[in-house]
Each structure stands twice: as C-alpha cells, then as structure tokens.
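Pasting as-is:
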Amino acid sequence: MADHQEASVTLPSDPVSVSAARTYVAGVLAEWGLPSDSEIGETVRLIVSELATNAVQHTFGQSPTFTVDVALDRDECLRIGVTDSHPRFPKRLPAAVQQDNGRGMVIIRWLTAECGGRLSVRPTREGGKTVAIELPWTAPVQPVQPVQPLTATRAQQDS
C-alpha cells in the first residue's frame, strides 16, 4: 500500500448528500482494506453522517456544497474532514430536555476519543471551515488478490 492515499468528493448541501457521503467514505475505506462490517468502519460511517449532517443543517443555505476529504498516511493515521463555506464554527447547543438535535459535535467528539483519535476545527483560506477527525488506522493491510480465470478443470472440480 502507498505511504499516502487520498480521496475527495464534493456534494450539494442537501439532506440526501449525507447518505452519499457515508457511502462514499465506506467505499474508499473498503478499497484501502477496512472490512465494511468492522466496528471501526461502522463508527467512521456514523461520524461521517454527523459531520455531513452538520454541514447541511447548520450552514443555513450559505454553503451550496460541502467536501469530504479522506486521507490515509503510512497505514497508521486516517484523516477525514468535512469542509463547507460557512464561516461559523460549530458550537455546543444547550441540552434542553425537549431538544431533538444539537448533539452532533458531542457524538463526534465522543466517538473519536473512544477510538483513540482527535477532533479539530480549522478555518479555510476561503472563509469557511473544516471539521476533521484523525483516527489510528487499525485495519490490516489486505493485498488485493487477482481473480483467477475459471478453467475447465477448475470448473469441474468446483461442481
């Protein structure tokens, strides 16, 4: 596997893009050797869902798109960042008893810490922000095996 791998997708700030972001990241991680049914894979999908949801819901239509960047360094550190063009940084909302939302950053922070990672928020040069996580990469590197052509002898053995 290469020392550094990157993938990126830009999506419209629309609720249907949350699922698209989650699916995209899951596909990239599967290509890089993370089994789709692993516990860390499910955790990463939940984190991406929360990050994308925040980019859609809390930019108040001022960010027409958001970008999801995924990077893997030396099979040691996974970085995922969601960038939007809205200048306001996320903030923790008061946890009122009747409140149905506002806990996304708490969830992201807790899941990231639980995996031994860290969360950061930084401004972009264009005036927006990137909310990013860094997690230790725990998936064993799995070389891709070429598909063997089905020969007549092998087909008879398989039947």
